[in-house]
Specification:
Radius of gyration: 22 Å
Shape: globular
Bound molecules: pyridoxal-5'-phosphate
Order of helices and strands: HEHHEHHEHEHEHEHEEHHHEEHHEEHH
Largest sheet: 7 strands, mixed
Structural class: alpha/beta
Number of helices: 16
Strand content: 5-15%
Amino acid sequence: MDVLKRWGLTPVINAAGTMTSLGASRVSPEVCASVGDVLGRFVRMDELHAAASRVIARLTGAEAGYVTSSASAAVTLACAAAIAGDDLAAIEALPMTGGRERRIAVMMGHMVNYGGPIPQAIAASGAEVVPLGTAALCETYHLEAAIGAGLAAAVYVVSHHTVREGELPIALFIDICRKHRVPVIVDMASEYDLKGAVALGADAVIWSGHKFLGGPTSGIVAGRAAMMRAMVLQNRGLGRLMKAGKESIVGAMAALEAWEVRDHSAETAREEAIVEDWIARLSGIRGIALARHGDWTGNPVTRVELRIDPAAAGIFAWELASRCIAGEPAVALRDDLAVHQLIYLDPCNVTAEEAVVVADRIRSVCDAAKIRSDGCQVTWDEEKRARGKGHTPWLGEVGDA
Ligand SMILES: *Cc1c(COP(=O)(O)O)cnc(C)c1O
């Protein structure tokens, strides 16, 4: 059975990276087999949670681990754990916090939106979000002043979305918090490093199971045993609203074990060959300068950067991306920096055959725009307004009558 055909869905070639809007990751057959196996059976969930904790602890070096329904749910539940601890009455009362300390600090430059806003994921626990510093500057005294006024926890975000100048480095941030016994929650949903933040002493470190790990939708948390216990106990409160089922937990475990035994250098070589192929196939398009681009936060991924000169190319970067995805199959390009006339091609989720389709599509969209002179029509403001809508064409858009 072809699921896409059955429901009339457009096939997508994903050169954008791991995106929730495209169904997150391509889950490997081994991981699917584990998920399929457990779905038809019963398990004792306490045993499953214990087994997941052991797998996560082994891969991260942490005392314990926990699987949630997503990384964003893990942020909320880690904050809930920091506020309510293992007090069952307090857990059931959240997001009402009674007289408990509920202030949770996060640097202003870390208040990103990964599809939803991180301050909301924190506040959903019942926390009062305490912003540290300003957009691109946070000093140690900002953190120390917040600690002095009382904190239940502090959140640190590692992501290409954050401001990366003027921020406190993670080691210093954790150090200061630990000195004052303030728990640190690290959201590094998209980062390949499974050990660094744990080794620095973070209380809870969070990854997405469905990003680079290639698992089904899930969140993976590693950290101190007391913190993990408090997170598990949130299942009797807020955690129930965002519960991870046996399929998510088994899928996250299987994805972690697949990651453990994967030949990472062979995977890097495979991606490298696609990058080289893209550069060869796309060179010579008028108005597009190509470059190899290292990952923003140092993950071992190289992408192809397309720097577009609209006057010469006859098309704006955002128009190129939206025309590529409008075709059949849909070809998704990474366009979050399109306002700067930059497009990136991400090799992680693309096969060698798909890479050819991506390059051909880009070339034909550019050629067509030049021949028809129909590019450079939609301004960024118009594009942004269109994208700012709710994307619910099957139900009408936000603001429609
Ligand atoms: C993707 C991402 C999230 C959200 O992850 P989900 O597992 O999809 O909820 C949260 N934080 C950061 C930094 C992310 O990159």
